[in-house]
DNA sequence: CGGGGTATTGAGCGCCCTCAATCCCTGTGG
DNA sequence: CCACAGGGATTGAGGGCGCTCAATACCCCG
Protein backbone atom coordinates (compact mmCIF):
# COMPACT_ATOMS: atom_id res chain seq x y z
CA UNK A 1 0.00 0.00 0.00
CA UNK A 2 1.75 3.10 -1.28
CA UNK A 3 5.12 1.59 -0.42
CA UNK A 4 7.06 4.02 -2.50
CA UNK A 5 5.40 7.14 -1.16
CA UNK A 6 5.11 6.07 2.44
CA UNK A 7 6.06 9.52 3.64
CA UNK A 8 3.13 11.03 1.89
CA UNK A 9 0.51 8.82 3.45
CA UNK A 10 -1.56 11.07 5.73
CA UNK A 11 -1.57 8.69 8.67
CA UNK A 12 2.16 8.36 8.48
CA UNK A 13 2.81 12.06 8.24
CA UNK A 14 0.54 12.50 11.18
CA UNK A 15 2.06 9.81 13.36
CA UNK A 16 5.54 10.95 12.52
CA UNK A 17 4.76 14.52 13.50
CA UNK A 18 3.18 13.72 16.85
CA UNK A 19 4.96 10.59 18.07
CA UNK A 20 8.34 8.95 18.03
CA UNK A 21 6.91 5.97 16.23
CA UNK A 22 9.13 4.08 13.81
CA UNK A 23 8.22 3.71 10.18
CA UNK A 24 8.28 -0.05 10.53
CA UNK A 25 5.55 0.12 13.11
CA UNK A 26 3.44 2.37 10.96
CA UNK A 27 3.83 -0.12 8.18
CA UNK A 28 2.43 -2.84 10.43
CA UNK A 29 -0.64 -0.69 10.96
CA UNK A 30 -1.21 -0.29 7.26
CA UNK A 31 -0.80 -4.00 6.65
CA UNK A 32 -3.91 -4.72 8.69
CA UNK A 33 -6.98 -5.83 6.73
CA UNK A 34 -8.16 -2.36 5.79
CA UNK A 35 -11.28 -1.61 3.78
CA UNK A 36 -11.36 1.68 1.94
CA UNK A 37 -14.53 3.55 1.11
CA UNK A 38 -15.50 6.81 -0.56
CA UNK A 39 -18.39 8.69 0.96
CA UNK A 40 -20.11 11.97 0.23
CA UNK A 41 -20.48 15.07 2.31
CA UNK A 42 -22.79 14.84 5.31
CA UNK A 43 -22.36 11.09 5.61
CA UNK A 44 -22.78 9.67 9.11
CA UNK A 45 -19.87 7.34 9.78
CA UNK A 46 -21.03 6.28 13.23
CA UNK A 47 -23.97 7.62 15.18
CA UNK A 48 -24.47 8.30 18.86
CA UNK A 49 -25.44 5.04 20.53
CA UNK A 50 -23.64 2.85 18.01
CA UNK A 51 -21.23 0.16 19.12
CA UNK A 52 -18.73 0.12 16.30
CA UNK A 53 -16.57 -2.91 15.62
CA UNK A 54 -14.00 -1.08 13.55
CA UNK A 55 -11.99 2.11 13.62
CA UNK A 56 -12.05 4.74 10.94
CA UNK A 57 -8.97 6.34 9.42
CA UNK A 58 -9.39 9.47 7.32
CA UNK A 59 -7.39 9.37 4.11
CA UNK A 60 -8.93 12.42 2.46
CA UNK A 61 -11.50 15.00 3.52
CA UNK A 62 -12.65 16.45 6.80
CA UNK A 63 -14.98 15.03 9.46
CA UNK A 64 -16.39 16.19 12.76
CA UNK A 65 -17.75 14.78 15.98
CA UNK A 66 -20.97 16.34 17.16
CA UNK A 67 -23.80 16.11 19.63
CA UNK A 68 -27.34 17.37 19.39
CA UNK A 69 -29.19 18.78 22.39
CA UNK A 70 -32.85 18.48 23.23
CA UNK A 71 -33.68 21.88 21.72
CA UNK A 72 -32.04 20.91 18.44
CA UNK A 73 -28.86 22.90 18.99
CA UNK A 74 -25.76 21.16 17.73
CA UNK A 75 -22.32 21.25 19.27
CA UNK A 76 -19.32 20.10 17.29
CA UNK A 77 -16.72 18.72 19.69
CA UNK A 78 -13.91 17.97 17.26
CA UNK A 79 -12.73 18.46 13.72
CA UNK A 80 -10.66 15.81 12.01
CA UNK A 81 -8.20 16.12 9.17
CA UNK A 82 -6.63 13.45 6.96
CA UNK A 83 -4.47 11.10 8.99
CA UNK A 84 -6.75 11.29 12.03
CA UNK A 85 -8.30 8.23 13.63
CA UNK A 86 -11.47 9.93 14.83
CA UNK A 87 -13.02 7.04 16.72
CA UNK A 88 -9.97 5.32 18.05
CA UNK A 89 -11.67 5.60 21.42
CA UNK A 90 -14.31 3.09 20.36
CA UNK A 91 -11.60 0.50 20.85
CA UNK A 92 -12.07 0.89 24.60
CA UNK A 93 -15.36 2.74 25.04
CA UNK A 94 -18.04 0.51 23.61
CA UNK A 95 -20.88 2.93 23.17
CA UNK A 96 -20.51 6.09 21.08
CA UNK A 97 -21.52 9.16 23.07
CA UNK A 98 -21.55 11.33 19.94
CA UNK A 99 -21.82 11.10 16.17
CA UNK A 100 -19.13 11.16 13.54
CA UNK A 101 -19.97 12.72 10.18
CA UNK A 102 -18.14 13.93 7.11
CA UNK A 103 -17.88 17.64 6.39
CA UNK A 104 -16.78 17.05 2.81
CA UNK A 105 -16.57 14.16 0.41
CA UNK A 106 -14.06 11.84 2.00
CA UNK A 107 -12.02 8.71 1.49
CA UNK A 108 -12.11 6.56 4.60
CA UNK A 109 -10.29 3.42 5.65
CA UNK A 110 -11.77 1.03 8.17
CA UNK A 111 -9.70 -1.16 10.46
CA UNK A 112 -11.45 -3.97 12.39
CA UNK A 113 -11.12 -3.59 16.15
CA UNK A 114 -10.17 -7.21 16.47
CA UNK A 115 -7.17 -6.91 14.16
CA UNK A 116 -6.06 -3.61 15.65
CA UNK A 117 -6.39 -4.90 19.20
CA UNK A 118 -4.30 -7.92 18.30
CA UNK A 119 -1.57 -5.80 16.81
CA UNK A 120 -1.49 -3.39 19.76
CA UNK A 121 -1.29 -6.28 22.19
CA UNK A 122 1.76 -7.60 20.38
CA UNK A 123 3.37 -4.23 19.80
CA UNK A 124 3.53 -2.06 22.85
CA UNK A 125 5.28 0.82 21.08
CA UNK A 126 2.45 1.13 18.63
CA UNK A 127 -0.10 0.98 21.43
CA UNK A 128 1.72 3.81 23.17
CA UNK A 129 1.73 5.89 20.00
CA UNK A 130 -1.99 5.51 19.55
CA UNK A 131 -2.64 6.15 23.22
CA UNK A 132 -0.61 9.32 22.77
CA UNK A 133 -2.78 10.31 19.83
CA UNK A 134 -5.90 10.07 21.94
CA UNK A 135 -4.20 12.14 24.64
CA UNK A 136 -3.53 14.86 22.08
CA UNK A 137 -7.21 14.78 21.17
CA UNK A 138 -7.94 15.42 24.83
CA UNK A 139 -5.43 18.28 24.90
CA UNK A 140 -7.23 19.85 21.96
CA UNK A 141 -10.50 19.53 23.85
CA UNK A 142 -9.01 21.33 26.84
CA UNK A 143 -7.98 24.11 24.50
CA UNK A 144 -11.51 24.27 23.12
CA UNK A 145 -13.01 24.45 26.58
CA UNK A 146 -10.69 27.33 27.39
CA UNK A 147 -11.49 29.10 24.17
CA UNK A 148 -15.25 28.67 24.36
CA UNK A 149 -15.37 29.34 28.07
CA UNK A 150 -13.22 32.45 28.30
CA UNK A 151 -12.65 34.10 24.95
CA UNK A 152 -14.72 36.54 22.94
CA UNK A 153 -16.15 35.45 19.62
CA UNK A 154 -13.41 37.25 17.69
CA UNK A 155 -10.63 35.37 19.48
CA UNK A 156 -12.47 32.07 19.33
CA UNK A 157 -12.84 32.26 15.59
CA UNK A 158 -9.23 33.28 15.14
CA UNK A 159 -8.17 30.38 17.34
CA UNK A 160 -9.99 27.65 15.49
CA UNK A 161 -8.64 28.97 12.20
CA UNK A 162 -5.10 28.89 13.57
CA UNK A 163 -5.57 25.36 14.84
CA UNK A 164 -7.02 24.04 11.61
CA UNK A 165 -4.29 25.71 9.60
CA UNK A 166 -1.51 24.13 11.63
CA UNK A 167 -3.14 20.72 11.81
CA UNK A 168 -3.75 20.75 8.10
CA UNK A 169 -0.20 21.89 7.38
CA UNK A 170 1.02 18.87 9.32
CA UNK A 171 -0.48 16.45 6.83
CA UNK A 172 -0.88 18.37 3.61
CA UNK A 173 1.90 19.13 1.23
CA UNK A 174 1.52 22.62 -0.12
CA UNK A 175 1.25 26.28 0.62
CA UNK A 176 1.04 26.82 4.34
CA UNK A 177 -1.18 29.88 4.60
CA UNK A 178 -3.66 28.99 1.89
CA UNK A 179 -5.45 25.82 2.87
CA UNK A 180 -8.49 23.94 1.68
CA UNK A 181 -10.98 24.25 4.51
CA UNK A 182 -14.29 22.60 3.67
CA UNK A 183 -16.06 24.08 6.68
CA UNK A 184 -19.12 26.30 6.48
CA UNK A 185 -19.70 29.26 8.75
CA UNK A 186 -22.55 27.27 10.22
CA UNK A 187 -20.18 24.49 11.23
CA UNK A 188 -17.68 26.94 12.67
CA UNK A 189 -20.51 28.41 14.73
CA UNK A 190 -21.53 24.98 16.00
CA UNK A 191 -17.96 24.25 17.00
CA UNK A 192 -17.41 27.55 18.75
CA UNK A 193 -20.66 27.83 20.67
CA UNK A 194 -21.71 30.81 18.55
CA UNK A 195 -24.38 31.55 15.96
CA UNK A 196 -23.78 31.76 12.27
CA UNK A 197 -24.66 35.47 12.35
CA UNK A 198 -21.91 36.24 14.79
CA UNK A 199 -19.34 34.14 12.96
CA UNK A 200 -20.25 35.85 9.74
CA UNK A 201 -19.84 39.34 11.15
CA UNK A 202 -16.46 38.64 12.67
CA UNK A 203 -15.19 36.95 9.53
CA UNK A 204 -16.18 40.03 7.58
CA UNK A 205 -14.27 42.15 10.03
CA UNK A 206 -11.18 39.99 9.56
CA UNK A 207 -11.60 40.37 5.83
CA UNK A 208 -11.98 44.13 6.05
CA UNK A 209 -8.82 44.29 8.13
CA UNK A 210 -6.95 42.40 5.43
CA UNK A 211 -6.20 39.62 7.88
CA UNK A 212 -7.63 36.67 6.05
CA UNK A 213 -10.21 35.51 3.58
CA UNK A 214 -12.47 32.47 3.82
CA UNK A 215 -14.42 31.77 0.66
CA UNK A 216 -15.04 28.94 -1.70
CA UNK A 217 -13.90 26.47 0.95
CA UNK A 218 -10.48 28.02 0.95
CA UNK A 219 -8.85 29.85 3.83
CA UNK A 220 -6.18 32.36 2.92
CA UNK A 221 -4.28 33.99 5.75
CA UNK A 222 -2.57 37.29 4.96
CA UNK A 223 -1.27 38.14 8.43
CA UNK A 224 -0.51 34.99 10.34
CA UNK A 225 1.31 36.71 13.15
CA UNK A 226 -1.57 39.07 13.89
CA UNK A 227 -4.15 36.31 13.68
CA UNK A 228 -2.12 34.24 16.10
CA UNK A 229 -1.99 37.17 18.47
CA UNK A 230 -5.72 37.80 18.34
CA UNK A 231 -6.33 34.12 19.04
CA UNK A 232 -3.74 33.86 21.78
CA UNK A 233 -2.71 30.78 19.84
CA UNK A 234 0.18 28.74 21.21
CA UNK A 235 0.59 25.43 19.46
CA UNK A 236 2.15 23.66 22.44
CA UNK A 237 -1.12 21.88 23.10
CA UNK A 238 -0.81 20.06 19.78
CA UNK A 239 2.33 18.37 21.12
CA UNK A 240 4.30 18.03 17.94
CA UNK A 241 7.46 16.03 18.43
CA UNK A 242 8.84 16.37 14.93
CA UNK A 243 6.81 19.05 13.18
CA UNK A 244 6.93 18.91 9.39
CA UNK A 245 8.59 21.84 7.66
CA UNK A 246 5.34 23.54 6.78
CA UNK A 247 4.36 23.49 10.43
CA UNK A 248 7.70 24.75 11.67
CA UNK A 249 7.31 27.77 9.47
CA UNK A 250 3.93 28.52 11.01
CA UNK A 251 5.07 27.97 14.54
CA UNK A 252 8.03 30.27 14.16
CA UNK A 253 10.42 30.44 17.07
CA UNK A 254 10.00 27.54 19.47
CA UNK A 255 10.56 28.00 23.15
CA UNK B 1 -1.30 -1.45 51.72
CA UNK B 2 -4.86 -1.65 53.00
CA UNK B 3 -5.04 -5.31 52.08
CA UNK B 4 -8.09 -5.97 54.17
CA UNK B 5 -10.09 -3.05 52.89
CA UNK B 6 -9.06 -3.23 49.28
CA UNK B 7 -12.57 -2.49 48.10
CA UNK B 8 -12.58 0.79 49.90
CA UNK B 9 -9.44 2.13 48.31
CA UNK B 10 -10.56 5.01 46.07
CA UNK B 11 -8.47 4.01 43.08
CA UNK B 12 -9.85 0.52 43.25
CA UNK B 13 -13.44 1.62 43.54
CA UNK B 14 -12.84 3.89 40.63
CA UNK B 15 -11.16 1.36 38.39
CA UNK B 16 -13.74 -1.26 39.22
CA UNK B 17 -16.59 1.06 38.31
CA UNK B 18 -15.22 2.17 34.96
CA UNK B 19 -13.22 -0.79 33.67
CA UNK B 20 -13.26 -4.55 33.65
CA UNK B 21 -9.95 -4.64 35.43
CA UNK B 22 -9.22 -7.52 37.79
CA UNK B 23 -8.46 -6.93 41.42
CA UNK B 24 -5.13 -8.66 41.00
CA UNK B 25 -4.07 -6.12 38.45
CA UNK B 26 -5.10 -3.25 40.66
CA UNK B 27 -3.04 -4.78 43.41
CA UNK B 28 0.00 -4.70 41.13
CA UNK B 29 -0.54 -0.99 40.66
CA UNK B 30 -0.60 -0.36 44.37
CA UNK B 31 2.54 -2.42 44.92
CA UNK B 32 4.56 0.06 42.90
CA UNK B 33 6.95 2.28 44.87
CA UNK B 34 4.38 4.87 45.86
CA UNK B 35 5.15 7.96 47.91
CA UNK B 36 2.27 9.48 49.82
CA UNK B 37 2.04 13.13 50.70
CA UNK B 38 -0.43 15.43 52.41
CA UNK B 39 -0.82 18.89 50.96
CA UNK B 40 -2.98 21.88 51.76
CA UNK B 41 -5.60 23.63 49.73
CA UNK B 42 -4.39 25.66 46.76
CA UNK B 43 -1.23 23.58 46.39
CA UNK B 44 0.19 23.39 42.87
CA UNK B 45 0.97 19.76 42.13
CA UNK B 46 2.39 20.40 38.68
CA UNK B 47 2.49 23.66 36.79
CA UNK B 48 2.08 24.48 33.12
CA UNK B 49 5.39 23.90 31.41
CA UNK B 50 6.58 21.25 33.87
CA UNK B 51 7.88 17.92 32.69
CA UNK B 52 6.83 15.62 35.50
CA UNK B 53 8.57 12.31 36.10
CA UNK B 54 5.81 10.80 38.18
CA UNK B 55 2.03 10.44 38.14
CA UNK B 56 -0.25 11.62 40.87
CA UNK B 57 -3.05 9.55 42.39
CA UNK B 58 -5.64 11.32 44.52
CA UNK B 59 -6.40 9.43 47.71
CA UNK B 60 -8.42 12.15 49.42
CA UNK B 61 -9.59 15.62 48.43
CA UNK B 62 -10.39 17.36 45.17
CA UNK B 63 -8.12 18.84 42.52
CA UNK B 64 -8.55 20.69 39.25
CA UNK B 65 -6.72 21.35 36.02
CA UNK B 66 -6.67 24.93 34.92
CA UNK B 67 -5.23 27.40 32.48
CA UNK B 68 -4.77 31.14 32.78
CA UNK B 69 -5.23 33.46 29.82
CA UNK B 70 -3.31 36.61 29.03
CA UNK B 71 -5.97 38.85 30.59
CA UNK B 72 -5.81 36.89 33.83
CA UNK B 73 -9.02 34.97 33.28
CA UNK B 74 -8.85 31.38 34.48
CA UNK B 75 -10.48 28.38 32.88
CA UNK B 76 -10.78 25.15 34.83
CA UNK B 77 -10.74 22.25 32.37
CA UNK B 78 -11.30 19.36 34.76
CA UNK B 79 -12.23 18.47 38.31
CA UNK B 80 -10.78 15.39 39.94
CA UNK B 81 -12.13 13.28 42.77
CA UNK B 82 -10.44 10.64 44.92
CA UNK B 83 -9.31 7.70 42.82
CA UNK B 84 -8.51 9.86 39.81
CA UNK B 85 -5.08 9.89 38.19
CA UNK B 86 -5.18 13.51 37.05
CA UNK B 87 -1.93 13.64 35.13
CA UNK B 88 -1.78 10.16 33.72
CA UNK B 89 -1.30 11.86 30.38
CA UNK B 90 2.13 13.07 31.44
CA UNK B 91 3.23 9.50 30.87
CA UNK B 92 3.05 10.17 27.14
CA UNK B 93 2.87 13.96 26.76
CA UNK B 94 6.09 15.32 28.18
CA UNK B 95 5.20 18.93 28.69
CA UNK B 96 2.23 19.96 30.82
CA UNK B 97 -0.08 22.29 28.90
CA UNK B 98 -1.97 23.24 32.05
CA UNK B 99 -1.59 23.32 35.83
CA UNK B 100 -2.83 20.90 38.42
CA UNK B 101 -3.81 22.28 41.82
CA UNK B 102 -5.68 21.13 44.89
CA UNK B 103 -9.11 22.55 45.68
CA UNK B 104 -9.04 21.25 49.22
CA UNK B 105 -6.53 19.71 51.58
CA UNK B 106 -5.60 16.45 49.92
CA UNK B 107 -3.71 13.22 50.35
CA UNK B 108 -1.78 12.39 47.22
CA UNK B 109 0.20 9.35 46.12
CA UNK B 110 2.97 9.67 43.56
CA UNK B 111 3.97 6.86 41.22
CA UNK B 112 7.23 7.22 39.26
CA UNK B 113 6.70 7.15 35.50
CA UNK B 114 9.51 4.67 35.13
CA UNK B 115 7.91 2.11 37.40
CA UNK B 116 4.45 2.61 35.96
CA UNK B 117 5.70 2.39 32.40
CA UNK B 118 7.48 -0.86 33.23
CA UNK B 119 4.36 -2.36 34.73
CA UNK B 120 2.16 -1.31 31.82
CA UNK B 121 4.62 -2.75 29.35
CA UNK B 122 4.43 -6.09 31.10
CA UNK B 123 0.72 -6.01 31.73
CA UNK B 124 -1.33 -5.11 28.70
CA UNK B 125 -4.66 -5.41 30.48
CA UNK B 126 -3.64 -2.79 32.97
CA UNK B 127 -2.39 -0.54 30.19
CA UNK B 128 -5.75 -0.85 28.47
CA UNK B 129 -7.58 0.00 31.67
CA UNK B 130 -5.56 3.15 32.16
CA UNK B 131 -5.88 4.10 28.51
CA UNK B 132 -9.61 3.68 28.98
CA UNK B 133 -9.49 6.01 31.97
CA UNK B 134 -7.89 8.74 29.88
CA UNK B 135 -10.54 8.20 27.20
CA UNK B 136 -13.25 8.77 29.77
CA UNK B 137 -11.51 12.02 30.73
CA UNK B 138 -11.80 13.02 27.09
CA UNK B 139 -15.48 12.06 27.04
CA UNK B 140 -16.04 14.32 30.03
CA UNK B 141 -14.30 17.13 28.17
CA UNK B 142 -16.62 16.66 25.20
CA UNK B 143 -19.54 16.95 27.57
CA UNK B 144 -18.08 20.14 29.00
CA UNK B 145 -17.61 21.63 25.54
CA UNK B 146 -21.23 20.85 24.77
CA UNK B 147 -22.42 22.30 28.04
CA UNK B 148 -20.34 25.48 27.87
CA UNK B 149 -20.95 25.96 24.17
CA UNK B 150 -24.68 25.44 23.97
CA UNK B 151 -26.38 25.59 27.36
CA UNK B 152 -27.63 28.50 29.43
CA UNK B 153 -25.96 29.23 32.73
CA UNK B 154 -28.77 27.55 34.68
CA UNK B 155 -28.35 24.27 32.81
CA UNK B 156 -24.57 24.43 32.93
CA UNK B 157 -24.54 24.78 36.68
CA UNK B 158 -27.06 22.01 37.11
CA UNK B 159 -24.98 19.81 34.85
CA UNK B 160 -21.70 20.16 36.66
CA UNK B 161 -23.43 19.49 39.97
CA UNK B 162 -24.98 16.32 38.55
CA UNK B 163 -21.64 15.18 37.24
CA UNK B 164 -19.77 15.82 40.44
CA UNK B 165 -22.46 14.10 42.46
CA UNK B 166 -22.32 10.94 40.39
CA UNK B 167 -18.56 10.87 40.15
CA UNK B 168 -18.26 11.36 43.87
CA UNK B 169 -20.85 8.70 44.57
CA UNK B 170 -18.73 6.27 42.56
CA UNK B 171 -15.87 6.49 45.02
CA UNK B 172 -17.37 7.65 48.28
CA UNK B 173 -19.26 5.46 50.66
CA UNK B 174 -22.21 7.33 52.06
CA UNK B 175 -25.36 9.24 51.37
CA UNK B 176 -25.77 9.74 47.66
CA UNK B 177 -27.52 13.10 47.49
CA UNK B 178 -25.56 14.86 50.20
CA UNK B 179 -21.95 15.05 49.20
CA UNK B 180 -18.90 16.90 50.37
CA UNK B 181 -18.09 19.32 47.58
CA UNK B 182 -15.12 21.52 48.42
CA UNK B 183 -15.67 23.82 45.46
CA UNK B 184 -16.29 27.55 45.74
CA UNK B 185 -18.70 29.45 43.52
CA UNK B 186 -15.66 31.12 42.05
CA UNK B 187 -14.25 27.78 40.99
CA UNK B 188 -17.57 26.67 39.54
CA UNK B 189 -17.65 29.89 37.53
CA UNK B 190 -14.14 29.29 36.22
CA UNK B 191 -15.09 25.78 35.18
CA UNK B 192 -18.32 26.81 33.47
CA UNK B 193 -17.13 29.87 31.60
CA UNK B 194 -19.31 32.12 33.78
CA UNK B 195 -18.74 34.80 36.41
CA UNK B 196 -19.16 34.28 40.11
CA UNK B 197 -22.05 36.74 40.09
CA UNK B 198 -24.01 34.67 37.63
CA UNK B 199 -23.27 31.40 39.40
CA UNK B 200 -24.35 32.91 42.67
CA UNK B 201 -27.68 34.12 41.31
CA UNK B 202 -28.58 30.82 39.74
CA UNK B 203 -27.60 28.86 42.84
CA UNK B 204 -29.88 31.10 44.85
CA UNK B 205 -32.67 30.39 42.44
CA UNK B 206 -32.12 26.66 42.82
CA UNK B 207 -32.22 27.12 46.56
CA UNK B 208 -35.43 29.15 46.42
CA UNK B 209 -37.01 26.43 44.32
CA UNK B 210 -36.12 23.86 46.96
CA UNK B 211 -34.00 22.00 44.44
CA UNK B 212 -30.69 21.93 46.24
CA UNK B 213 -28.46 23.67 48.72
CA UNK B 214 -24.74 24.32 48.44
CA UNK B 215 -23.19 25.68 51.59
CA UNK B 216 -20.37 24.94 53.93
CA UNK B 217 -18.70 22.84 51.22
CA UNK B 218 -21.65 20.49 51.20
CA UNK B 219 -24.03 19.91 48.34
CA UNK B 220 -27.47 18.64 49.27
CA UNK B 221 -29.82 17.73 46.46
CA UNK B 222 -33.52 17.67 47.28
CA UNK B 223 -34.92 16.95 43.83
CA UNK B 224 -32.45 14.89 41.87
CA UNK B 225 -34.85 14.10 39.07
CA UNK B 226 -35.67 17.73 38.38
CA UNK B 227 -32.04 18.80 38.57
CA UNK B 228 -31.13 16.11 36.10
CA UNK B 229 -33.85 17.35 33.78
CA UNK B 230 -32.72 20.97 33.95
CA UNK B 231 -29.16 19.86 33.21
CA UNK B 232 -30.13 17.48 30.44
CA UNK B 233 -27.82 15.14 32.30
CA UNK B 234 -27.32 11.68 30.87
CA UNK B 235 -24.53 9.79 32.55
CA UNK B 236 -23.67 7.66 29.53
CA UNK B 237 -20.61 9.78 28.87
CA UNK B 238 -19.08 8.65 32.16
CA UNK B 239 -19.00 5.11 30.76
CA UNK B 240 -19.55 3.13 33.93
CA UNK B 241 -19.20 -0.57 33.36
CA UNK B 242 -20.08 -1.71 36.85
CA UNK B 243 -21.55 1.27 38.68
CA UNK B 244 -21.44 1.03 42.46
CA UNK B 245 -24.80 0.83 44.22
CA UNK B 246 -24.83 4.49 45.16
CA UNK B 247 -24.39 5.40 41.51
CA UNK B 248 -27.04 3.02 40.27
CA UNK B 249 -29.54 4.69 42.53
CA UNK B 250 -28.69 8.06 41.02
CA UNK B 251 -28.77 6.87 37.48
CA UNK B 252 -32.17 5.29 37.86
CA UNK B 253 -33.48 3.27 34.95
CA UNK B 254 -30.75 2.38 32.49
CA UNK B 255 -31.46 2.18 28.83
C1' DC C 1 -12.17 41.04 67.90
C1' DG C 2 -10.33 41.65 63.86
C1' DG C 3 -9.24 39.58 59.17
C1' DG C 4 -9.38 37.22 54.91
C1' DG C 5 -11.79 34.52 52.00
C1' DT C 6 -16.39 33.81 50.34
C1' DA C 7 -21.02 35.03 49.24
C1' DT C 8 -24.55 38.45 48.12
C1' DT C 9 -26.73 42.45 46.07
C1' DG C 10 -27.60 46.42 42.81
C1' DA C 11 -27.23 49.14 38.63
C1' DG C 12 -26.01 49.62 34.02
C1' DC C 13 -24.18 47.93 29.83
C1' DG C 14 -22.65 45.14 25.83
C1' DC C 15 -21.80 41.04 23.30
C1' DC C 16 -24.09 37.89 21.21
C1' DC C 17 -28.64 36.03 20.29
C1' DT C 18 -33.20 35.68 17.80
C1' DC C 19 -35.95 36.34 14.01
C1' DA C 20 -36.47 37.13 9.39
C1' DA C 21 -35.61 38.82 4.98
C1' DT C 22 -32.44 39.10 1.15
C1' DC C 23 -28.48 38.15 -1.62
C1' DC C 24 -25.07 35.27 -3.73
C1' DC C 25 -23.12 31.41 -5.87
C1' DT C 26 -23.14 27.08 -8.10
C1' DG C 27 -24.92 23.29 -10.25
C1' DT C 28 -28.84 21.51 -12.97
C1' DG C 29 -32.03 20.98 -16.47
C1' DG C 30 -34.88 22.68 -20.13
C1' DC D 1 -28.20 30.25 -22.81
C1' DC D 2 -31.23 31.11 -19.32
C1' DA D 3 -34.50 29.83 -15.62
C1' DC D 4 -34.60 27.69 -11.46
C1' DA D 5 -33.46 25.59 -7.09
C1' DG D 6 -31.05 25.24 -2.96
C1' DG D 7 -27.43 25.68 0.14
C1' DG D 8 -24.75 29.13 2.05
C1' DA D 9 -23.68 33.94 3.18
C1' DT D 10 -25.20 38.53 4.40
C1' DT D 11 -27.79 42.24 6.50
C1' DG D 12 -30.97 44.71 9.79
C1' DA D 13 -33.57 45.49 13.97
C1' DG D 14 -34.44 44.53 18.52
C1' DG D 15 -33.87 42.10 22.87
C1' DG D 16 -31.86 39.40 26.73
C1' DC D 17 -28.47 36.80 29.28
C1' DG D 18 -24.60 37.26 31.44
C1' DC D 19 -20.89 40.69 32.23
C1' DT D 20 -18.57 44.64 34.72
C1' DC D 21 -17.94 47.40 38.51
C1' DA D 22 -18.48 48.13 43.13
C1' DA D 23 -20.28 48.00 47.60
C1' DT D 24 -21.78 45.16 51.43
C1' DA D 25 -22.75 41.07 54.22
C1' DC D 26 -21.33 36.76 56.00
C1' DC D 27 -18.54 33.36 58.36
C1' DC D 28 -14.94 30.58 59.86
C1' DC D 29 -10.66 30.94 62.42
C1' DG D 30 -6.92 32.47 64.86
Task: Please write the string of helix (H) and strand (E) elements of chain A.
Answer: HHEEEEEEEHHHEHHEEHH
Looking at CATH, the homologous superfamily of chain A is: Jelly Rolls
What would the CATH topology of chain A be? Answer: Jelly Rolls
| Reported CATH architecture of chain A | Sandwich
Strand content of chain A: 15-25%
InterPro entries (chains A, B): cNMP-bd_dom, cNMP-bd_dom_sf, Env_Response_Regulators, HTH_CRP, RmlC-like_jellyroll, WH-like_DNA-bd_sf, WH_DNA-bd_sf
Keywords (chains A, B): DNA-binding, Transcription, Transcription regulation
Domain HTH crp-type (chains A, B): 151-225
Protein name (chains A, B): Crp/Fnr family transcriptional regulator
Describe, in plain words, how this protein is organized in 3D.
- Chains A, B: Residues 151-225 form the HTH crp-type domain.
- Chains A, B: Keywords: DNA-binding, Transcription, Transcription regulation.
- The structure is a homodimer of 255-residue chains.
- Chain A is an alpha+beta fold and 255 residues long.
- Chain A has a single domain (6-251), classed as Jelly Rolls (Sandwich).
- Chain A is built from 9 helices and 10 strands.
- In chain A, the strands form 3 sheets. Chain A has a 4-stranded antiparallel sheet with strand order 2-6-4-5. In chain A, strands 1-7-3 form a 3-stranded antiparallel sheet. A 3-stranded antiparallel sheet of chain A has the order 8-10-9.
- Chains A and B meet through strand 5 and helix 4 of A and strand 5 and helix 4 of B.
- The structure holds a DNA duplex (30 and 30 nucleotides).
